[in-house]
Amino acid sequence: MENAVETEELTRTFGSLVAVDRLSLVVRRPEIFGLVGPDGSGKTTTLRMLAGILAPSSGRARVLGFDVVRQAEEVKARIGYMPQRFSLYGDLTVQENLAFFAEVFRVPAREREPRMAELLEFAALSPFRNRRAEYLSGGMKQKLALACTLIHRPQLLLLDEPTTGVDPVARRDFWSILYRLLGQGVTILVSTPYMDEAERCSRVGLLSLGRLLTAGTPQELKAAYPHQVLEVRASPVGEALALLRRLPQTIDTQIFGESLHLVVQDARAAQEPVRRILENAGLRVQSLRPIAPSMEDLFMALLRPDRAKDQAP
Ligand SMILES: Nc1ncnc2c1ncn2[C@@H]1O[C@H](COP(=O)(O)OP(=O)(O)OP(=O)(O)O)[C@@H](O)[C@H]1O
Ligand SMILES: [Mg+2]
């Protein structure tokens, strides 16, 4: 079957700014493809071009087999696009919001009621069907926005940071819905700033300054990671960080909650020198262990190849 999305050198400029720079990307059918990148890297601009609502400056994109410029109406009828700031109607109830979108997407009248009931059930919103949208929790609002996006049974979803600002439990909830949709054959292209979500995608693409730095499955990307990571648990963590940045073996350091990730060429060989420098300074070392790189380690390495020790105190 043909790919859900194919772009070729897709580019969008705003004046002299290149927001999306010769992006060539394939999203297969079905998969959950994660578009990951820092603020301003071009995620929203890419999704808007794919949704047929922003014209590319150059290059091409086909969505579900249709050209996003010449066949924008065909594209719009078949996709569900959830913008970064999705506008629900706060003074309408959950059910009324769904009915509104059913109208906009011209869902045939006799299909509306069953489709709305199905989506309310699917998003676990049935008990709240008569609640005004403005009184929903953040997580419920996002689930309602997704339900509205699904009203016309799109084959492809373009979701722009659908879980940003939502608590971790609600985020997990939202992702379990995405997996169920994938199981039904729906392809999902989702942008996210969260690395744990990148980890859950079938494939991931990393954008920086409008350019695609790399794409592949999380496993493939990790296998290409050029260094090793030593997880260091020592307290106080701030002092440990300052000391470890001075070690000649250190390529990079990152704080992950209570622990530190020390990026080195050889994690096993680094264990002893690390223990020594910390203990000699009177710090308490709880544990040192070589670990597989996380998605965040990976992206840090790709985004700042010359990060090295430039931030040493
Ligand atoms: N309509 C516009 N006019 C001018 N510049 C724009 C416009 N839309 C986006 N840009 C610029 O294009 C670049 C990419 O923006 P975009 O919104 O696509 O990034 P993003 O990855 O979605 O960021 P965020 O994570 O903050 O949502 C940014 O530098 C942004 O300021
Ligand atoms: Mg954005």
Using the alpha-carbon principal axes, give the shape.
globular
Mean pLDDT: 94
How far the N terminus sits from the C terminus, by CA atoms, comes to 54 Å
How many helices in DSSP terms?
11
CATH structural fold name of the largest domain: Rossmann fold
Q: What is the CATH class designation of the largest domain?
A: Alpha Beta
Radius of gyration: 23 Å
Using the 3D structure, state the CATH architecture of the largest domain: 3-Layer(aba) Sandwich
Q: Give the spatial strand order of the biggest sheet.
A: 6-7-8-3-9-10
What does this structure look like?
- It contains eleven helices and 14 strands.
- The chain has 313 residues and is an alpha/beta fold.
- It has two domains: 218 residues, P-loop containing nucleotide triphosphate hydrolases (Rossmann fold); 79 residues, Alpha-Beta Plaits (2-Layer Sandwich).
- α3 packs parallel to α5.
- It is globular and about 75 Å long.
- The C terminus is likely disordered.
- The structure holds adenosine-5'-triphosphate and magnesium ion.
- Magnesium ion binds next to α1.
